[in-house]
Structures are given as C-alpha cells and as structure tokens.
Specification:
The chain is an alpha+beta fold. It folds into two domains: 195 residues, 4-Layer Sandwich (Glutamine Phosphoribosylpyrophosphate, subunit 1, domain 1), CATH 3.60.20.10; 195 residues, Rossmann fold, CATH 3.40.50. 37% of the residues lie in helices and 19% in strands. It has 18 helices and 17 strands. The strands form three sheets. It has a six-stranded antiparallel sheet with strand order 2-3-1-9-8-10. Strands 4-5-6-7-11-12 form a six-stranded antiparallel sheet. The N and C termini lie far apart (54 Å).
Length: 484
C-alpha cells in the first residue's frame, strides 16, 4: 500500500493509524498492507482489520455475516456480540425479521452480510461506525475515507482545498462536508438507514419502511429511554468495560452519568483557554457537583482553544488528520488527554453522549428549518457556502444516491432525518473515529427504535427534554437539585 504524503512513519503512528478500522475487498490483492493488520476470508470477500478491531463472524446455509465493533440489544437483553450476530443470522432470510432485529440494536458497529451472490453492508442506527466506499475502480468499503482513496489510487478532489479554506467553512466550529462527499475523488460516505451493495457499489434505503404512525406519549418515550440506559449499563458490566465519559452541565452527559455512575466510571471535563491554564468554568463546576453527588470525582483538563502547527507535529495528530480526512483541522486539543487516559485504563470504553439531539430535534428550532425536501433547502440548513455550485451539487447527488425525498421519508419530519443522516451520520461518525485513536468508543443514545419513539412525540414535548430529565432522575435521584 502506498500511503499518501505524511510525516515519517514510526511505531506509534503505525499503532494509531486507522485504529479500530476495517476494510472489505473482493480479493486479497486489494486489501491494504498495514503493519499488524490481519485479513480473514468472509465467503468470497476479504475482511482486513486493525489488530485492535473487535469483530465476530458467523456462517450458516451459505450465508456469511460479520459484525465489526460493539453491539447489544437492550430490548431483548442480549449483551454479547456473538449472540447478537446469531440473532441476525437466524433472521437474515426474512427482511421483516432481519430489520426488526437491526432496529433494536444499540452500540457502534458495521454489519457485513453476504448471501445470494451479493454483499450488503449496514451500520448502527446513528451510523456512528463510519463506512466509506469507492464509486470507481476496485469495489472497496472501509472505515476511513483515506484507506479507500489509497486503495483505488484516488487523489484529492478539486473542490476540497478551496472549500476547506473558504471563510464560511473556517468560521464553523462543527466542520463537515456537504452531502456524502469526502475530500477524495470517487470516495463517498454511507449514511444511516441505507445499505451498501457490493460489488455494484449501489445504495438502497431500507428505513423508514412504513409511515410514522401514531403519536407516542411522554411516558412511553421515558420508559424506552430508561430501558436503553439500563441496557448500556448491562453491556458494560457483562463485557468487563469501564466507562470513560466527558461530563458537562448538558442534558445528554447527565443521562450517561446516571446510567454509568455505579460502573466505576472515569469522569472528565475540560476547560478551554488560550494558554491552557484555566480549570474553572460553568461546565466544570457543574460536572464536579454532579460527580460529587455520588462520591465521585471529575478530572478537570485545562486545554488550549486551538493547537498550533508545532503542537500537532506528532504521531497522534498525524493519525488524527488521516482518520478525519484532513477536514477537521490539524489536531484535537483534548484528544491527547483522552489518549493518556486510555493508556492507563486498558479496559476503558469512551461513551460519547451523542444521539440526544436526534431524539429531541435540532433543525426545527433553526431559522433555516426544512419545509420541503429540495437541494436549496438542504443546502440552506447545512449553511456552509449554501449558494455555491459545489454545495448544491453535493446535495443533489446525496438526494439521488440515498433516496432522500419527501416520499421516501414517509411522513417523518425531514429536519429530523436530515440531522440524523447527514450531520450525525457524517460529522458524528468521523468524531467517533478520532476518539478511537485514544480508546474504543461508543455512542450512548443509539437505536432506531429509540429514535423513532421520540420522533413520534409532539415536537413541543420532545424539545422540552422532560423525558431525559425524568429518566436521569429515575436512575440517579440524588441529581434532583442539579437537573435544572
């Protein structure tokens, strides 16, 4: 494998590069040659994995399945990936039964199914385990865009540098690209609720499969959330993982804390400043109060607002840039502290409080909320160079590629599906890949059944956060005076 230009290779970079990653290829000759990675056959495919990547495989009746990452079923109480995969294998002959299992699953994973002469690749509900694939050259799918680009010989696309350096993009704190684009020609990203079909490299939408239906009650949504968080706690316990969580004054991190407080968590919060010498902020003070309510301590990490180029001249930052395809900056101010924690806490699993805004709604409160699915409104909601030919062209491609139309959404609010599939399915998943450089990571709020339960609530009830507050207090009643 010929790597793209980078700093001189060293042992630390080799260990970190595409950590917890994977590649699916049609022949061993198309698999990457990365130090320590292993290749296993899966039917007539080849699955190549980073040495630390968690995976299980199953075969029956000519059907080959592989689950890469962490998965559990909080509704049926299944907390081991091998048993999850067995349930999927039992159901795979029937689309209805298979999707019913898939909709229940939480965690962070890619699922590869080979049967009847074709291969299908799915993700967890939020798409937090990123999958990128080739649209020209050899049929490749992988966890990281740069791997696919390198294997098919793709270069940076012409749009990338001008877009990345545009004032509108540079001003954004949350940086991600329009549509399903990557920086590379002929490499795009798979988004939630769709599956990749290899070797044709086509995409099919499999959800929503039916109209949104009846409204849910706040009591039903709260019960579903409590059960989900109980499932997270059981997953950690049964798999011997110690939760590592960033705690703030926010709703979502409080819920993660409530679920994991009895699991010997490692708790941190960070405070940004120019000189990285400040340890007090409203978030850090509230995090200390929340942890202290249960006799726990929140570590406070003082970090820089941003890193200089000299501060990113190291293996971790190089691995960061390549894991994130260069569009999220030169490095991460807090990732080094998380990586140091990962070295000390070898059984750690970083639980990131993503998913809550999918459940509550995000774009509904924005000035440029979507009222009809079209290129202009998706570009406006994304709000980076919205009038440019580049942005609009990528959203036109996304609408066609993933069947993102009013009809295909079956009555679901397009603001919900766009936030879920585009922002969280692209920015959110790449954020998880950067966390992988420190330790294995997983999303806290993540199952299709959980998401659709909350999406069926009246919007005013969803936005009130009351279900989150009730669920948090049911799991951690001592936080009663800290949830306001």
């Amino acid at each position: 494998m010929t790597l793209l230009p980078c700093l001189p290779a060293n042992a630390e970079l080799k260990r970190l590069l595409y950590r917890n990653g994977f590649v699916v290829s049609k022949s061993p000759a198309e698999a990457p040659s990365l130090a320590g990675w292993k290749t296993v056959p899966l039917g007539d495919l080849y699955l190549t994995l980073h040495p630390e990547t968690r995976f299980v495989t199953a075969i029956a009746g000519g059907r080959h399945l592989a689950l890469v990452g962490q998965a559990f079923d909080p509704e049926f109480g299944i907390y081991q990936e091998g048993v999850v995969l067995a349930a999927l294998l039992d159901a795979v002959a029937s689309d209805e039964e298979f999707y019913a299992v898939l909709d229940r699953l939480a965690g962070r994973f890619a699922l590869i199914v080979q049967m009847d002469g074709r291969t299908e690749i799915y993700q967890d509900a939020m798409g937090s385990r990123s999958v990128f694939y080739s649209t020209a050259g050899a049929p490749i799918a992988a966890s990281h865009a740069e791997i696919v680009a390198d294997l098919i010989g793709a270069r940076f696309a012409d749009f990338f540098v001008p877009f990345l350096t545009s004032r509108n993009y540079q001003q954004r704190d949350v940086k991600y690209l329009p549509g399903v684009a990557t920086p590379y020609d002929h490499v795009v990203q798979l988004t939630p609720n769709t599956k990749l079909i290899m070797p044709h490299q086509s995409v099919e939408r499999f959800w929503p499969r039916e109209d949104i239906g009846m409204e849910t009650t706040n009591e039903e949504a709260t019960a579903a959330l409590v059960a989900h968080l109980h499932g997270l706690r059981w997953y950690l316990a049964i798999n011997g993982r110690r939760p590592v969580l960033g705690l703030t004054a926010g709703t979502d991190s409080r819920g993660v804390f409530a679920a994991t407080k009895d699991s010997n968590p490692v708790i941190f919060t960070y405070v940004r400043s120019e000189a990285a010498n400040t340890t007090s902020s409203p978030d850090s003070r509230r995090a200390s109060e929340i942890a202290g309510a249960y006799g726990l301590e929140a570590q406070v990490w003082p970090i820089h607002n941003r890193l200089t180029l000299n501060q990113t001249d190291n293996a971790l930052s190089e691995a960061f840039r390549r894991a994130t395809a260069y569009y999220r900056g030169p490095g991460s101010p807090w990732l080094g502290r998380l990586a140091a924690t990962g070295e000390k806490v070898r059984d750690g699993l970083f639980i990131r409080g993503f998913g809550g805004e999918v459940m509550r709604g995000f774009y509904q409160s924005q000035e440029k909320r979507i009222t009809k699915v079209n290129v202009q409104q998706l570009s406006n909601a994304y709000d980076v160079n919205a009038g440019s030919r580049i942005t609009r062209g990528f959203f036109e491609d996304m609408m066609s590629r993933v069947s993102f139309t009013d009809d295909s959404l079956k009555g679901y609010d397009p603001n919900d599906i766009f936030y879920w599939e585009h922002r969280m399915g692209t920015w959110g998943s790449v954020s998880m890949s950067e966390a992988d450089l420190a330790m294995p990571s997983m999303v806290a709020y993540n199952s299709r059944n959980l998401f659709k339960t909350f999406m069926a609530l009246p919007q005013t009830v969803r936005a009130s956060r009351s279900a989150f507050e009730v669920a948090t207090l049911e799991l951690a009643p001592a936080l009663k005076d800290l949830c306001s």
